[in-house]
Amino acid sequence: MAGCAVAGGCPSDYIAVAISLLSLILLFTRAIFPFVVHKVPRTKGSGFWIPVIQVFSSFNLVLSLVMSLNFLKFRKRHWWQSCYVWAGHLVVSLSSEVKLLIWVEGPLGFGLLLSCRIVQAFHLYCIFVKRRLPPIRSYIFLPLILLPWVAGSAFIHMKKPLNTLCHMGTQWIIPVVCLHTSYVAALVGFTMAIWHIEFRFHEIKDLWRGIVVSTSSIGVWVAAYILNEVHEEIGWLQVSSRFLLLLMASILVLAFFSMSISQPLLSQMSLRKREPPEFETMGQALGIPDSGLLLQREPAPITDPNEPLEKLLLNKRFRQSFMAFADSCLAGESVHFYDEVHELGKIPVDHPVKRIYMARHIIEKYISAGAAMEVNISHRIRQQILNTTDLAHPDLFNTALNELMHLIKMNLAKDYWSSMFFMKFKEEVSMRSNAQEMEQVTGWNFSPRLSSVHGTDDPFHQEHPSKGSSHSSHDSDPR
């Protein structure tokens, strides 16, 4: 035990490494599953990149603990194997080399992980409390939050406070713990600021889970540090403490990862390939009435090309036919945008949270620069939407919709009337109207005598006795 406690390679060390490897595999699976299995198109904004950075920082955190705490038994011959490269602010290592300082676990590991969650909480605060998009971009805000970690690592890099066992003195551990807890406190502050919002997904639950596991991790790290500082000579304590540290880090990276904050629809997808997504559209996830559904009793659509296009598009069947034609022309973004704005209009004004969810979804999918289905609108209108002070405003997308309707009428609408999509749509409307007329006629036939189908064509037809045979039977009936 004493030998492997110093050099590494104890049985418990390999068990901890196996657990951490399994947690990373599960983490990668959760992150890439919607894109690989369900073929979800990825966004180009922070909704995609922040979860990716979380996975990156989680990998750094686990790897840094494995490298700095001597879990694997190998001789350290290179500078990159030093505990100063891998170890974090709270290190309990038995490495004998001291060269560079704590960059992987601190600024690129636990610090980056907490910073990403603070950015997500800040986004929720701006969107649902202030009802506007965040005033500062994520690629600027995230480095700003990470600056204290970088500054602290650079300062320790110059002072080199670690001893031959990679332990810090008490005068160093106190400010390091304060740095960790200050980030958790900031996360708690943002979470309390949005506590009153009735979220439709699991945002609050995920935030509190992240706070609990990160606080628990800090507590475990501090306890392990104190025990190892006091009892450096006890081998089993060294082995058990580093096992507990890596186990806690493995739990942390799994519990901390969340899709519901950045991409709510992806968080609703099952991890089973055979199961389709529970909600295919944001309208269905928000419970918008008749979202994405074709009603059997829907009024017959108008097929007159002389009618205004705005009136025709109000019908779901016509809108889907027109959308299919636009997609075949590789120009379906405008019609899809119209469809989702139409769904937004069904949400009452006194339900601002639902309206904000839908508005954010539309902005990320159609309005933001580089969006998956970016629509062709003027820069002025795009900036008006992105800089709005009320995401729940009922007229948020009206100007953009009017501009796109003008483009649709000038291009797609003229070609649609002569397309096979319109011909097929007319046939379907005609067949449905005929079927409804037949249903109305046959709906009153409560008796076989009123059936309009006679003879052998009637499935209920039976050979009824003729009049003559009827009379003969009566005559032959004994009285």
TrEMBL record:
InterPro entries per UniProt: RGS (IPR016137), RGS_sf (IPR036305), RGS_subdomain_2 (IPR044926)
- Stored Pfam families: RGS
Keyword Transmembrane belongs to the record: yes
Q: Which domain of life is it from?
A: Eukaryota
Q: Where is this region: Disordered?
A: 452-479
KW Membrane (keyword) present: yes
Domain called RGS: residue spans? 308-426
Would you tell me the protein name for this molecule?
Answer: RGS domain-containing protein
Upper taxonomic classification of the species? Eukaryota, Viridiplantae, Streptophyta, Embryophyta, Tracheophyta
